[in-house]
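User: Predict the complex with calcium ion.
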Amino acid sequence: MRRSLDLVVTSVATQLMEATAATATQVSEAVLAQLVEQFDVDASFLRHHDNDIRAWVLVAEWPRRTNVPDPDPQAVIHFTSADPVLTQCEQSRKPVVVGAELPSRSLWRRMSAGRQDGASSVAAAPLVSRGATIGVLGFVKFGARRWKQEEINTLEAVAALFAQLQARIAAEEKLRYLAEHDDLTGLYNRRALIAHLSERLAPSSPGPVAVLYLDLDRLKPINDYLGHTAGDWFIRVFAQRIRACAGQSMIARLGGDEFVVVPDQSMSAATAEAFARRLGAMLRERLAIGGHMITRSVSIGLATGTPGRDNSTDLLRRADEAVLTAKRGGGNQVAVSTDDMSLKSAFRNDIELHLQGDIDSEALLLHYLPEVDLWTGAIVAAEALVRWRHPIWGLLLPDSFIGIAESTNLAGELGQWVMRSACAEFSRWRANGVGQSAVLRINVSPVQLITRGFVRSVADTIEEFGLDGASICLEITERAVVHDIETTRNTLHELKEVGVQIAIDDFGSGYAVLSHLKSLPVDILKIDAGFVRDLGTNAGDLAIVRAIIGLAEAFGLQLVAEGVETPAAAQTLMQHGCHRAQGFLLSKPVPGNAMEALLAARWMPLPFLADRPTLSAGAV
Ligand code: C2E
Ligand code: CA
Ligand code: CA
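Assistant: Here is the predicted structure with calcium ion placed in the model:
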């Protein structure tokens, strides 16, 4: 139904006023549909000026063309190739009406292709804002049409409304851009970053979400010596470089020389850390600034967050804390957030990444735990315990990396390093006349035990350092023995031929090795510390320890108690017949030179055992 043209303008004004950036295209199309009906024409179009690419870009049309090829050849019409109608529109700033047959190049002719007559009538009005043409609104009738002046007036009025809408949306987008971006670099700002992180951390979004907090090392000298303009320039170039290196990420500048990169893919802490290292390496390249070649390394703090669990500000704070750690560590490095959860996985990844490289370096070392005869105080053995001096995490105990070594095929290499280093050191002590009757105990991982060539390498190492097999004892955890009993039995028999002693470590800790004990060539049982710690107060533990003592007697095995921490435990052990022990009551693990000193002294005072208990009946 046709309405009066005044009503048409009012209706269009109402509809366009409510349009937003998100709905503008849809609303425009609806308005075009109404106008096509109103003017009784065949087609309509709305195009915007894009000055960057110097072209008219199609925003909406009605009716939609069918069978549009991809890419749509009409989507973008460059100024240079534009139809005369568009050119006229631009120049006149007034509505243009073309009623007759159009030149063959004509866009309108193409639109009417397939129609026999080939003649069209076009009325188009420029969208004018602040004196400049910013778009065009046009209507096409296939065939001749006469445009009344009031229709042209209406067209002009509607074009003005479209121009307003376009200008308003452009202003809104500009405002939004300014609200979300940093003006020095054009990167996102803190507010946009927080909004983005909140979205990424929403429950059931894919995770983990990695956050890399970048802090330029030593920017201040650039500002101080080259001036703030140079400093700003440097930051801008640096921002471009981050963009080039981390394109697929949300990148924000939080002011100063602090940037945040949030990879758009969810990624594990391991992947994120590898990414952070790559990024750090790429960003370190030199830049020319004011005639100077400048290299600025960057410290990176990494934190990962779990959707539905972490919130954006906490995640950002953790990354910020981590970057402080990286800076404190001297800069030019990646530090991982110390949040407990993310710490564990990041830590694991770091270990995986670096253990391999560190096995042959100075980073690994051995401490020794003396084993003492509680009756005499004599030091009868030294157990080698591996440690890893890690550049970021400090001195690591084996529990934090042995498991990882075992799951990444590094256990063999690590074990061999321990074996060689322990034997080398022990043989030096021996050469100094120390520890002649003591035994060196070396822990062997279950993986090593079933590795081909293991027995051979043990034999070679012992020979290389001139040691006799009987002075070496390999400790194997109970769990390993049970895991692959056939292979283990064979390997242990071969080891006995080499002459080394064999101990079952952590004995009693829950894996039923008992049934196999008879068939395995074992010399020593080490009572698991878990049964020893509370001896003297825990009757249940005492019952187990007594059973183990009985077992050792039955099989003719030696016994050592681990984890003796109190005089009560030591006394209880002695009372029931176990007189060899290790534990913090006697000594903590000590460096090699301290162990050598202990062996040289041959015995240690045991003042806490001043009144030795009397042996109970049946004790060894
Ligand atoms: P483990 O063989 O049972 O070694 C004894 C562990 O108990 C040592 O911990 C020692 O420091 C600790 N310990 C000794 N006395 C006490 C005590 O009175 N109280 C407490 N709370 N702890 C005590 P460490 O050095 O952290 O070693 C842990 C485990 O790592 C070892 O347990 C052993 O299974 C493994 N390990 C150590 N070095 C090596 C190695 O070179 N190769 C392999 N495969 N495993 C190793
Ligand atoms: Ca051990
Ligand atoms: Ca143990």
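The longest strand covers residues 379-390.
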